[in-house]
Amino acid sequence: MRYVRRMLRRGDRAGGLGVDERLSWRFVRYNLRNGASNRRRRRHVFDEAVLPKVLLVGARRIRDFVRAEGLRTRR
Fold it and tell me: Distances in Å between the alpha carbon of 51 and those of 7, 40, 46?
């Protein structure tokens, strides 16, 4: 689960608020209960959209797509 890995990893991270972030078991339970239905709903919206789109699941696929298309990222 991405949230747990992010909270257990120490140090600054991209998108961090610069404050001490702590693992919330309440949020873990919420994600376990609601995560799958949210993913299904978002996937349905994606599938129904009639716009040009690319489904990229995971950081590695996003990074590979950005490189393959010659896009630049802000750093």
Answer: 35, 19, 9
Contacts of 46 by beta carbon, 8 Å cutoff, 6+ apart: 53, 55
- Residue 28 and residue 7: Cα distance in Å, rounded? 11
20-21-25 Cα angle (round to 5): 145
pLDDT tens digits, one per residue of 23-63: 788 888 888 888 778 888 889 999 999 999 999 988 899 99
